[in-house]
Amino acid sequence: MKIKAIVHEAEEGGYWAEVPALPGCVTEGETWEEVIENLQEATQGWLEVANESQKNKDTDRIVEIAI
Q: Structural domain tally of the chain?
């Protein structure tokens, strides 16, 4: 899965990043490598929480799709 994120330079140094498609999914890092690693973890965590919080009826089916 690919998803777009925006990485900003922080005024105090380092970087911060956001994923516009996932409201509230933000992170930061002192280096480019750190912010990218943190961004991957934050995105994965956001998606896991969103997936777990879904309430399904007994007749609903959960499927996974590749995008």
A: 1
Does 63 map to a domain?
A: no
C-alpha separations of 25 from 15, 17, 58, 61, 67 in Å: 14, 8, 30, 27, 20
Q: Tell me, yes or no, whether 65 lies in a domain.
A: no
CA 5 to chain centre: 8
In a domain, residue 20? The reply is yes
**Does a structural domain hold residue 59?**
no
The label of the residue with tokens 């007749």 reads 59
Query: pLDDT tens digits for 26-60?
Result: 999 999 999 999 999 999 999 999 888 777 677 88
Pairing of strands 6-9, 26-29: unpaired
pLDDT bucket at 63, cuts 50 / 70 / 90: confident
